[in-house]
Amino acid sequence: MDIALPKKIQSFRLPVELIERLRQLAKRENRSLNNYVETLLLDAAYREPNDATIAAMKEAQSGSLRNSAPLDITSIEALERSMG
Question: pTM here?
């Protein structure tokens, strides 16, 4: 997300193992730890589907798309299994 938002320094206590895992994930994407964590938090804080997305999800779950079986959208793995 490339929006210039006002920033404030904040400290958090996190398990060392979690910080190391986040560092690894950030490195894989060639991003700083700060940028990676900020992006995760923004996504978690603002990820709410709009009405059109909710309607599409309900339609997919109902199985009314192309006479298919209902899709399980509880996880990526479940979705893949239900599409098979």
Answer: 0.54
